[in-house]
Amino acid sequence: MKRITIRKLLKRCLILLLGVISLSGSAQEEYCCWRTIMFPPFKMPKEQESDVSGFIAGDWNSHIHDLGAAYLGECPLTIEILSHSGVRDLNEMVEGITAVTTGKPKRNPSEYQDPKMNVDYIWKGILELTYIEKIVPGSIEPAYEGGTEYIPGYVEGGWKFTIQLYDVQHDEIVKEAHTTWTGTPLGFQKNLKNEYFAGKTDKIRIEILKELFNREFKDLKKIIIDYEKAPKKAEFESEVIKVESDKRKRITFKVTDEKGEKPKKWQRLAVKVDHGSLTNGTRCCDFSEGPKFYSFLCENGNVTIEYKAPPEEGSRLDHITVFNGCITRDPAVIRMEMVDEREEIGSVDIDINPVYETRLIVKGSFINNASYGRNFKVVNGSERYREDLNEVQEATFFVPLELERSDDMPILNQVWEYYRPKSITLTNCNIYSRKYTSSYASSPVGGHDLKSITIKEPLDLQISGKEAALQSNILVIIDKETGKVVKASPGGFAVDFFWHERYQQKGKVWSKEEGEKPVNVSENKTDEYRSDYWPGPVEDPIPDPTFRSISQSLRTFLNNMGTPLPAKIEIPEDEEHPEIEPELLVKFGDGKNSFGGNGKVVLENEYGPDSRRYSEKTFYWQITRIKK
Question: Where are the domains of the chain?
Fold first, then answer.
């Protein structure tokens, strides 16, 4: 273990010092994954003495670099092109230093120079002769200071070059393409003089490898993203799963990518368990006290976890969260203890053998994504601006209830049950705001190129008005004819906090008089007043379908009681039909032991090709009553 630790530390330090890695900022890392690609040497045809694989690799890599640093470094996937010789020399250096430090002999180069140990993908080149015009033998030529050197021979003829983007970690060809040319093995330019003068093209010659790259691999990121099929959604069989205290339960969830397809089987997941544990999977990520993390592979798209609930004296509600990760290398290279978890892609609540007669779960969420951009030319210059906003507010409350009283409402043919919260627990809370802006302007007198990020996170989370909420009542209304709950009033729970804002701006400004100046601004501040989030009904009220006419109900009640209405007495008709938020109506469950409601509102607007907004509000509640 000591040897491995020293080697890794040395390699990381040397890579950092040599500038092989460049990080764009911690805020971006949260959402980005990183892939490395290398073009190692490849074999020549037996007739070709001179090894030109390095020249071909260099030319090919130049076309990737032509895509630009902004493209290669942009999220959600950043790509780094590594030099084969640079990686080889770095590994040799690290191995040598490690051997001296530990006093142990060097390993076999095949152990640490294997591309699988160093990169995610490689380019595989295959150079073939289709026919031979002539073979130019090697020769001895004069060299510097009167010496001589041997110049290897080469072949002139027809050439076919096949390139493969190859997943070295999982032994898969991601994509393959080929091209041809005639002449020397370095003559990968096609003469178009005849076509040019015939007016069929505007180019006298084309670079064949460049044409091949632009035709087949120019959208390199999309090729890799579509191939990897990163998991983006984890679906459980229900929103709440019941497990008895200190017992095990097998839970399976389905994983899909952003297109609804199965991810690659080697994609890693991190599963977080707040209170219980898992008896399968590999402990990973965070080994501190608190929630436990376990790593899994996506396999066939159905992941099974063996959950073990905490003992009876432990928590009565657990929560399981599934995250996707960035690490995709073979577990033999990077062990399953590492996942580099990123996005939350699914979750489920675990109801652990409730001992309460009644319990309530309330969930709410608010998501707001907005983007705005403009790009236009001004006199002797140009301007462009973009702003992206991502806001999330989510909260889940667990509320064990105690029945205080039950009232018979004979005129309405209903029973009204009043429950008081015994306690209120915030079991899940995810609140943040992130805004990214980029601004560029250029003119003959000056300009700027600035990027900024504003991150807002909650501090001092508290349940709002907790003591007052504990004295409030949750009303549950039962239809006496069916014996089932038809509606309830489960609202009134909220979380409040201070917004803490971190702002960072980087870039540069320039002017004709003062030249170029860097910009690096950072600010931190906390709001003076608390903000809050109240999960509650989100849909517009509708006429209450459970409402019964008071006048008609009274007539029926008096008739059932055998008390006729006096002739001169009239019961006034109802003046209006009451309304209710649809989420408060029971929409699922058996209406007796488990029941609840939910709602969702989505707003989408487009204000132009580069400006749009998406907002979503949801509300969910469920009451479970357990017979003792």
Answer: 2-228, 244-353
- CA 519 to CA 180: how far, in whole Å? 49
Backbone phi, psi, residue 241, to 5°: -120, 130
What are 607's two structure tokens?
A: 């204000």
Which own/partner pairs from 42-46 qualify as long-range (CB within 8 Å, at least 24 positions apart)? Answer: 42/124, 42/125, 42/126, 42/127, 43/127, 44/127, 44/185, 45/127, 45/128, 45/129, 45/155
Task: Give the Cα separation of 417 and 419 in Å (integer).
Answer: 6
- Per-residue tokens: 62: 């130049």
For 361-374, b/e burial (b = at least 16 CB within 10 A) is bbbbbbebebbbee
Strand partners for 124: 164
Question: Is pTM, for the whole model, over 0.85?
Answer: no
- What's the per-residue H, E or C state across 468-531? HHHCCCEEEEEECCCCEEEEECCCCCCEEEEEEEEEEEEEEEEECCCEEEEEEEEEEEECCCCE
Three-state SS annotation for 423-445:
CCEEEEEEEEEEEEEEEEEEECC
List of residues 6+ apart from 111 with CB closer than 8 A? 117
Which residues 6+ apart lie within 8 Å of 132 measured at CB? 47, 155, 156, 157
Res 36 pLDDT > 90: yes
Q: What's the CATH number of domain 244-353, 3.40.50, 3.30.9, 2.60.40, 2.60.120?
A: 2.60.40
Question: Which are the contacts of 4, defined by CB distance < 8 A and separation ≥ 6?
Answer: none
For 368-416, the pLDDT digits (tens) are 999 998 888 777 888 999 999 999 999 999 999 987 877 778 778 888 8
